Amino acid sequence: MKPTLLVLAAGLGSRYGGLKQMDGVGPNGEIIMDYSIHDAIRAGFGKVVFVIRRSFADEFKQRINSSHFDGRIEVEYVYQELDKLPEGFTVPEGREKPWGTNHAILMAKEVIHEPFAIINADDFYGRDAFAVMAKHLQTLDGTRGKYCMVGYRLENTLSENGTVSRGVCETDAQGLLVGMTERTSIGRTDNGIEYKDADGTLHPLDADTTVSMNLFGFTPDYFAESEKLFVEFLKEHGQELKSEYYIPFAVNTFIHSGYATMTVLKTSAQWFGVTYKEDRPSVVERLKRLHEAGVY
């Protein structure tokens, strides 16, 4: 069975101020998501599911229907809304913030029944990352709790125009994830690569440190297990106006409880994205070079 790609795109409307402003960074006006879907088709994914908001659904679907991959892969849409909560829970008065990335994943539980990968809509992951992920997911059909992620070299994920936040991964001798810690304010300094802690103290990070860029692979049991965990999350944090149910929180919980393992897959790909508006020229130039080299 071919794996499915789940694209987290519900936040695009707010980030781009309306989908018509989704940035065409490729030589022919391609947006970053076009490259991800193209690479997924090439890697052997059989379906793509987009998590979007109803407020921009028509505009988004029109954009997808006009893309060069329309007809080459099965496409489905699911919707992330604030009130899509487990039975017995309601949205607290005054809350406007979405419930987070793991809530977005739960929106697809009715349409995905095979191993699947998830990505952010506006990050460039690279051709090799999709190939590595698809190959591994094809070995997981029929299993439970055998999760995976593509780990990137920290040095390949930095911005030249400011600091970034990354999930720093700790692995064991078998290449399994032990834990993931969110580090903020990571950047290059005169001493190499460092991150700043809550007290403002700088700490070194090795350039080869493995970090997560939200390219995870799961088996379908992830939906039921993470929905149970979401109920517990809501009991504790459901009345907060800005609490979010993130993927690393669920992953760490499942690993530490012994329910799941997560294999960290290596890739030669270099991640990039427009973290700062000053990053855009670099992204445009990188994509231009990839076209000139015949990769796209």
Task: Describe the fold and architecture.
It contains eight helices and 13 strands. It is α/β, with parallel strands linked by helices and 296 residues long. The chain has one domain: Spore Coat Polysaccharide Biosynthesis Protein SpsA, Chain A. Strands 1, 2, 3, 4, 6, 7, 8, 9, 10, 11 and 12 form an eleven-stranded mixed β-sheet that branches. A two-stranded antiparallel sheet has the order 5-13. The radius of gyration is 19 Å and the shape is globular.
| Radius of gyration from the alpha-carbon trace, in angstroms | 19 Å
Report the sheet-strand fraction.
25-35%
Helix and strand string, N-terminal first?
EHHEHEHEEHEEEEEEHHEEH
Total number of strands: 13
CATH architecture: Alpha-Beta Complex
Keywords for this structure?
globular, 13 strands
List the helices and strands and how they pair.
Layout: E1 4-8, H1 12-16, H2 32-43, E2 47-52, H3 57-65, E3 74-79, H4 101-106, E4 116-120, E5 123-124, H5 127-137, E6 146-153, E7 164-171, E8 177-189, E9 192-196, E10 202-205, E11 210-218, H6 221-237, H7 247-257, E12 261-266, E13 272-273, H8 280-292
Helix pairs in contact: 2-5
